[in-house]
Amino acid sequence: MLAAVLKDFDQLVLEPVPQPQAQMNEAVVRVKSCGFCATDFKAIKGIRRNVTFPFIAGHEAAGVVASVGPGVTSVKPGDEVIVQPSGYCGFCHHCRSGNTHYCESAFTTGGDGPADVRPGAFAEYMKTDAKCLFRKPPRVSFDAAALTEPLSGAWKGVVQYSEMRVGDDVVVIGVGGIGLLCLMVAKAAGAGHLVAVDPSAYARDHALRLGATGAIDPSDGRTKERVYEIMPDGPDLIVEAAGPIEAVKLMVELRRRGTRWNVFGITTHETFELDGGLTHFLEGRMDASFGTTPLAMQQAIHLMDRRLVDPEAIITHRFPLSEIHKAVEAMAQPNRNKVIVNP
Ligand SMILES: [Zn+2]
Ligand SMILES: [Zn+2]
To answer: From ligand 1's centre to the CA of 340, what distance in Å?
Structure first.
């Protein structure tokens, strides 16, 4: 089969490799669509260093079951499926508490996080545990289905952890792909004012088209004033989906009493300060969220199937696997949103 194999940083090679074989409780999936995540781009460009070569990236996948190993009864060849990229044992303390993303024996197919990294979906075929597969509803496209994992992360952060309520005034800081998904989830959950904060005019336009009621450029340092002009009572919920530490600091600045706030985008080890007494009197409810769980995956699929969120709306580029280098170039340019690879 054809795969995009990362041999070293900046050495992405399209070449034939042996097709994966399903072992006990595993399934092989013919990949139809795979989202290009910032994590993949960072691995290819060496911005992220925890990569062992050779590596096949790509963890946001949907496709058709090609074959199953012994013991698999939940899916059969021909079934259209969505892949949860994080594997888990199902037996440890964390798994039994519902936090499969904390699993002591976690693995990832093409992603980042666990020590056990297996080949991902920038290839014609990939394999994983059958229990990591979800049935793709017929009316959800493969491209939309490939974005189940990031959408599930958005649902988990906004609705499950930060307990967004209907009518809440919501601010999303950073409206790249994951920020737009947070925004669409907040819209579907009945946000009142829904404000996007992003220095990119392209990103702000996209957010307004997808239902933001306001968009603010933070570059002039007057973000708090602007937010409180739009929502005089201040935000009920702030989601940081940006990454830079400045975005987290801005979130801290935007709070009023009772604001729930979610540290969602930052992954670097930079620090920010919190005033202890102020935090006490604000009753500031900080949450954070990473990764996904079977519950979040299922909820994301439900949102797509009921037409409450359509991730196709954030796809700006599509490339066949043979043009993966063009996909990498597309990822490098600022005016893009979600890039999809179709192997
Ligand atoms: Zn991702
Ligand atoms: Zn476990």
So the answer is: 12
